Each structure stands twice: as C-alpha cells, then as structure tokens.
Amino acid sequence: MNAQAVRGRFAPSPTGALHLGNLRTALLAWLFARKAGGSFVLRVEDLDIPRVRPHATSKMLDDLVWLGLDWDEGPGIGGPFGSYFQSARHAMYEAALAHLREQNLIYPCYCSRAKLHRLASAPQLGEDAPHYPGTCRNLTSEERRKRESAGERASLRFRAPETPIRFIDTISGEQFEPVADVVGDFVVQRSDGIIAYQLAVVVDDALMGISQVVRGADLLGSTARQLALYDAMGYPRPREYAHVPLLYDMSGERLAKRDASEGLEQVRNSGISSEHVLGALAASAGFWSVGMPATIHELLASFDVAQLRNTTYSLVV
Fold it and tell me: Which residues pair with 107 in a beta bridge?
C-alpha cells in the first residue's frame, strides 16, 4: 500500500435506516476521498449487537448503491484489511487491550452510572462521562478483588494523557484539548464486555490504513481521545480529519436514528430519482444549486471543500 495514498471511509452502524443526514455525510466522505484520487472503504460498525436491527445492513448498502456511492473495500467486495464488520474483529480489539494493559494504561472501573450521577450531581453523566473523577484509578489489587467477589462488573478505562492533544480539522481549524482535564480517563471496554467506540474506531482505522477521516461534527469532541489512543498504541495518526456540518430538518431539529428520522425508503417509494436526492444533499452542503438534480460525477467535478464552511442546514428533496 502506498503510504501517501489517500484512504477515506464511511462507517455506519446498522441500528436503523440511514437517515438523510447520514447519507449526506457518506456523500461528503466519498467526495473527499475521490477528489483526492484516493480509495474509499466501507466498514459496518455492528459491535453493539443488542442495538443492531435485522436487515439494517442490507438496507444501508442498498441505499448507498442507489445513490452511486461505490466503495473499493468492504461488504460484498472484501479487501486486504478485513473483516469489514466490527463484530468479526474482536481478536484485534483484544490484542489492543492487551497492549494497553502491558503499559499499565488501562484499569478496571467499578463505577456504575448511578454512582457517577451521585458523585458529580449531574444528571447528564453516564459511564463515559464528560469528566471522570478518577474514583477507581488507584484501587489496590485487594480492593479490586473485593469488588469483583461482590459481583461488581467493571468497565476498562484508559489513563488519559497529561499532555494536551493538538490537531488540525479541515473544517473547524486548529483544535487543542487537555483530555485529562476535559474528560479524564475514558472507557475503552464497557462493563457488559462490549468494546467501546473510542477504541474500536482507532483500531479499525489504524489497521485499515485510513488516512482521511470525514464524519459528522458531533464527533469532533471524540477526536482528541482517539488521538490519545493512536499515540499510546504507536499507530500513525490519520493525516486529515474533517468534521462536516450536521443536517437539520425544516424545524431545526438534528436528524437522528433514535428519533426515527426519515430515511430513503419513503423518498424512493415516491418515485423521486437518485439525482434529485444527490442534488438536494449537495445543495444543503452549500456547493450545489437548490432544486437542481445532479449525478455523482457532476458533484465530484464541482466539489469544493471551502464551501462547506458556510453550510445551509435545511434539506428539500
């Protein structure tokens, strides 16, 4: 693999249909990679098995194909860095945990969500809280044995670096975050045994040679934690991050799967063409005229990253 070749990706979760916001992010990720002459990888993030919905993966892939968003590696194609389903990559995550454990960079945490709520007196806190106070960081081996013998289930937390993380985002510019102060030690394996997103995405992107990460702006706040893991694992960091603006509906609400935001099924059933959907997605991102249909090749020819800084958020198909 050419070390300088751009390798972009889209990594959806099959927890429901891709809504139009997901699809716009997929379009932008594809355009970023193709404009740079790079390859495009599709990965299915299906680690959280209880939340995976039947047939969601096949529907996601079908929607991407319908829009003309092809991929060079991934489901149905394969590739040298498979599997392209997270549920089949557990051995790689376990190896990463073993590496961090050898460096004493992870430790068991017995704090339940309820306990973190009480400690912080903040109802929004969860297992991966905005700032973890380090409650279990320095427990002795005997204290851990007592908790485990009492049936307490532990998550695994990564010891946040004291050195601040710096990186450049193509959309948002220079970023600076002292992870230890902002979020503290964070979860890399949940108490139910499921590998946390922060670790899985780093292992996958690193081992798949992903050099360009284009995703929604809601994940900008996760990047410093992920770069801390890159550094701890000795992985080279991706050369480019671009956190693209989110898509909102006409009432100003952010589209989200949990809110049953509309996917493509109704749009496709109504007879609207893929060119009209592509044109609407591109217009909402600021680099295409409103109301104008477009082929994927026309969008690639006109794509201008700089225009994403002034994105409009409404979408009319």
Answer: 157
Residue carrying the six token digits 């599997």? 83
In contact, 196 and 187? CB cutoff 8 Å: yes
Nearest to 243 by CA among 308, 177, 317: 308
Secondary structure class of 49 (helix, strand, coil): helix
What's the pLDDT tens digit per position in 13-46?
999 889 888 999 999 999 999 999 999 999 999 9
Q: Report the alpha-carbon distance of residue 316 to residue 272 in Å, rounded.
A: 12
Same domain, 224 and 193: no
**Domain range enclosing 179:** 104-197
User: Within a domain: residue 316?
Assistant: no
Looking at the annotation, which residues are catalytic? 257
Amino acid (one-letter) located at 308: L
Task: Give the dihedral sign, CA 129/135/141/145.
Answer: negative
The answer to whether position 172 is within a domain reads yes
Number of domains in the chain: 2
pTM comes to 0.90
Question: What does DSSP say about strands 7-10 and 186-189: parallel, antiparallel, or unpaired?
Answer: unpaired
Residue 313 near residue 245 (C-beta atoms within 8 A): yes
With left for phi above 0 and alpha for psi between -120 and 50, is residue 78 left, alpha or beta?
left
